[in-house]
Amino acid sequence: MRLYLSSFRLGDHPEHLVALAGQDGRRALVIANALDDQPGTIRRMSTETEVRDLGLLGFDAAELDLRGYAGEPERLRADLAGAALVWLRGGNTFLLRYALRRSGADTVLRDLLAGDALTYGGYSAGCCVLAPSLRGLEMVDDAAVVTQLYGSEPVWDGLGLIDEAIVPHYESDHPEADVIGLLAQHYRDHAIPHRTLRDGQVLIVNGESITVV
Question: In this predicted model, what pLDDT tens digit does every residue of 155-172 receive, in sequence order?
Fold first, then answer.
């Protein structure tokens, strides 16, 4: 399994993402569903920034909008085939998790990662969603937005691809830094395994190897 988990954007050493994705394919798919509550113009511009930045690293990047795959996991699996990288940007973790469940991407991505078929990269919400549980993140992100947009309850279990919660933007110059500090304290108080990342830092998982750069 290959994971590139950044606190914010690409981090300070994106060359590690290029190396992790490998040279066999340069196709990258940007998943921006953590922004599904944002006005269309803001969502589009933010997604275009991610596509541009990955393009500067040499990837042939495009958006993959999970809203178009509700109940069609096999079509999603086919469209992910051959991708070197999926890149999940930040935003509302609960919206992203719901989009992953609704489209079946949670199961599809688990399968592809288990088979080492692609690299999973992302930041902020794109990292937080991988934990065993999303409990506690309601301190930072509004879980009720899922009900407001879709009329459904939020999904509280994470993808469980890592065994600890990621706390991004920790002690960083970020608008959420103060509440993130409270989240980290909540995890400590309740003995919840977690890892803090400052903006610029990246947690890299490559098989059995786990490093922070």
Answer: 999 999 999 999 999 989
Of 126, 127, 109, give the one whose Cα is nearest residue 118.
109
Round to whole Å and give the CA distance between 139 and 141.
Answer: 6
DSSP string, the chain: -EEEEESSTT-S-THHHHHHH-SS--EEEEE-GGGTTS-HHHHHHHHHHHHHHHHHTT-EEEE--GGGGTT-HHHHHHHHTT-SEEEE--S-HHHHHHHHHHHTHHHHHHHHHHTT-SEEEEETHHHHTTSSB-TTGGGTS-THHHHHHHSSPPP-B---SSSSEEETTTTSSSTTHHHHHHHHHHHHHTT--EEE--TT-EEEEETTEEEE-
The mean pLDDT value of the chain amounts to 96
Token code pair at residue 93: 């973790």
Q: Which pLDDT does position 58 carry in this prediction?
A: 94
Task: Please tell me the predicted confidence (pLDDT) of residue 24.
Answer: 66
Q: How close are the terminal C-alpha atoms of the chain, in Å? A: 18
**Residue 25 banded pLDDT, cuts 50, 70, 90:** low
* Alpha-carbon distances, residue 134 vs 46, 108, 144, 166 (angstroms): 24, 20, 13, 10
Ordered structural domains, the chain, with CATH:
2-212 (3.40.50.880)
**CA gap 158, 135 in Å, rounded:** 9
pTM of the complete model beyond 0.85: yes
